[in-house]
Amino acid sequence: MVEYKIKDLSLADRGKLAIEWAERQMPVLRLIRESLLRRKPLSGIKIAACMHVTKETAVLMLALRDGGAEIALSASNPLSTQDHVAAYLVEEGIHVYAWRGMTEREYFEAIASAASIGPDITMDDGGDLTVMLHKVALGERSGLDYEIGSSILSPEMAKKIRGGTEETTTGVIRLKALQRQGKLLYPVIAVNDSLTKFMFDNRFGTGQSSIDGILRATNILLAGKNVVVAGYGWVGRGIAWRARGMGARVIVVEADPIRALEAYYEGFYVTDMSSAAELGDVFITATGNTDVIRNEHFLRMKDGALLANAGHFNVEISVRDLEKMSTSVRNINEYVKEYTLPNGKRLYLLAEGRLVNLAAAEGHPSEVMDLSFGNQALAVKLLVERGALLDRKVYRLPKSIDKKIALLKLKSLGVKIEKLTEEQKKYLESWSA
């Protein structure tokens, strides 16, 4: 019997079509799924996953199920679940605890429900599942996640876990903090740190899908607008380049001097947020940090400025400050909320300050998630086979897997690459000219 909590099981037929469409664009994961189905390397393995419940994630979950795993899936964002996808996954035997529009309490209850499967492997996107398990195991009595997790989960549960995976930069930051403090309880593979993940998913995926979310929410013309991008990591640079490609004048705000210099030499205007606040028509945060745009910046902005976030958590734009200082608030549409400031200016917050690409659009294109989730599937297989041999550390996937994913993708695209001769290989391995 499949235990679940979703919005509407009758949406499953629509979900089936969406997942079939996504899988058609994901040839690498399709090949991995076929291999998992033949060999069943995950037989008897229980997986608890906290990820965006999208059609692309569904393709990954079905591949792992075909490999023999029992899976419990919760959402990694209250607004990112595609309800029709959740319904189809339940019909396919996966425990799903996710629906669009969850409250904060419902969100953490869903994570705890997924974790109650008693996982051998965890899969995370942002670290909320991993952190809940660690708080319960370590008795760190803080936050709603601990309150809910400790009422459902056993402190002993983490001892059974062979290993975990982490999909995004924010989650990796949290994991490395646990490792530094000597509190990480099992090995975790930072899938985000694979070249075939962050160079493509973060840059091309978030770059395109964040712009897509903003346009779906507002239908503005981006050409001619001053677009302020906060953060020039792989996500920020993807957004900056795509905004410029659509005719926007892009301003980059960056705290790291090397990244700031890179943005400058790539032709962007670089300044601090106080200066950018007066210039921007559209603001997009992509830093992974908190209070990037706050009280003093809101007061300097133009009337009508749009505020969007592409970072994992809704902390980059200080919604708290915005709520506190506004004289009136109203909803313009499902994704746009208007805040009127004491100076009479109006600012427009998109998607409650949450991930705009998933809250107001459909997330990354399937083609780019093919790379990310190919890495995820192979990371799970590696943990099942070798997790017991690994220390309690944050690991990167072996470079051989990165190359395998890239070669499979190139083959699916019909792209030929050069092959080195034996003489060339020998030359590259020699220290003598």
Explained architecture:
With 433 residues, the chain is α/β, with parallel strands linked by helices. It has 19 helices and 15 strands. The strands form two sheets. An eight-stranded mixed β-sheet has the order 9-8-7-10-11-14-13-12. Helix 6 (128-138) crosses helix 7 (143-152). The relative contact order is 0.13. The mean pLDDT is 97.
Short description:
It is built from 19 helices and 15 strands. It is of the alpha/beta class.
The CATH topology of the largest domain is what? Rossmann fold
Helix content range of the residues, please? 40-55%
The name of the CATH architecture of the largest domain is 3-Layer(aba) Sandwich
Molecular shape: globular
Calculate the mean pLDDT score and round it.
97
Note the gap between the termini: 67 Å
What is the fourth-level CATH superfamily of the largest domain? Adenosylhomocysteinase-like
The number of strands is 15
Biggest sheet: strand arrangement = 9-8-7-10-11-14-13-12
